[in-house]
Amino acid sequence: MLDTAHIGWHTGAWDLVTQLGAADGSATHPHLAFLISADAPPRDLSDAIHALCAVHGDHPGLAAEARTHCVQPDACDWLSAVADAFVAERSYIAQLAAAAGPLPSTPGQAETEAALITSHHAIEMLATSERRGCATGAVAALVQDWATIRLLLDHAATRFGVEAVPASFPPLAETASSVTMLGGTPATERAVRFGAQQLLAQHRALWDLLEARASARGA
């Protein structure tokens, strides 16, 4: 009799992360698709850049925090490479935020700030999880989802007159092999799944929030 309980495990942890990203990642959200279109107003782009700065713009960031705790020692080299890449990404976001100007006036600003703080805290909790594979899954999902977010950053760079800089993440094959190895048991793969799902949920909540703010401004 076929044991269906472990079919997902045998596909590999990185395949699992990419499947989750394809189903629930930023690429599936209509507001992000709108933001990278020619029709997106500058104020909506500015709002998105400032929100990303609030969630992902602070030092040390998800990957570096996960590397510091490193409950999976075999993950440390890969986490270090991702963390190093995000140093440049944070600098890029900061440049974009400066070029985008102040936050657009929007009703419910206090509630927005509270939501962004909550999201930032939730991501920190994923990074410091003691469950082997959880932080790995969150970082893997961030790397996978960032390819879509990068489309937004580069689009904003064009609109705000900032020179786009190339990303410096580890080669995709290296990330795929590292995540597959780190999620190489049923228990760690379940943790990878959980971490990835939670990270993607935070991103979807962010696009939901930005969509609501754009609507409140009458965009």
Compact summary:
The protein has 219 residues and is mainly α. The chain has ten helices and no strands.
Describe the structure in your own words.
Pfam families: DUF6975. The protein has 219 residues and is mostly helical. The protein has a single domain (13-216), classed as Heme Oxygenase, Chain A (Up-down Bundle), CATH 1.20.910. The chain has ten helices and no strands. The chain has helices at residues 7-10, 13-24, 30-35, 42-56, 62-69, 76-100, 109-127, 134-160, 172-182, 186-216. The model is unreliable at 1-10 (pLDDT under 50).
Q: What count of domains describes the coordinates?
A: 1
Tell me the fraction of residues in β-strands, as a range.
under 5%
Number of helices: 10
Rough outline: globular
Q: Determine the fraction of residues in helical runs and give it as a percent range.
A: over 70%
What name does CATH use for the topology?
Answer: Heme Oxygenase, Chain A
Q: What Rg, in angstroms, do the CA atoms define?
A: 17 Å
Largest sheet: none
The structure class reads mainly alpha
H/E element sequence: HHHHHHHHHH
Query: How does CATH name the architecture?
Result: Up-down Bundle
- Spans of 5+ residues with little confidence (pLDDT < 50)? 1-10
Give the number of DSSP strands: 0
C-alpha termini separation:
56 Å
Top CATH class? Mainly Alpha
Tell me, rounded to a whole number, the average pLDDT: 92
